[in-house]
Amino acid sequence: MKSDTPSGELRITENADGVTFSVHVQPRASKNGICGIQGDAIKLRLTSPPVEGEANRLCTEYLAKLLKVPKSAVTIIAGDKSRHKTIRVSGATAQAVHNLLP
């Protein structure tokens, strides 16, 4: 179920397989963490640099840890070379993603 949300509200699509949502990654942060919503995406700070897929790897591992799912359940489906990424998480719910927000 996908709904049109105004800017500043997280957009999450949930189906039988899991959820899809957007993240805005800030690499080279002092610590890993979710710091709110930017546009319609979760703003995610990561300590790794954006080279050789390090930030992408940390992004999927960190989200898997927070959502308590296996690393293999988290996939970047768009934005592999961008700060704006679309994430699919198998076995998670929209409520679980909302619960990540501070």
UniProtKB/TrEMBL annotation:
This is UPF0235 protein Gmet_1164. One of its GO terms (cellular component) is cytoplasm. It comes from the Bacteria. NCBIfam families: DUF167 family protein. It comes from Geobacter metallireducens (strain ATCC 53774 / DSM 7210 / GS-15). InterPro entries: DUF167, YggU-like_sf. Gene3D superfamilies: YggU-like. Belongs to the UPF0235 family. Pfam families: DUF167.
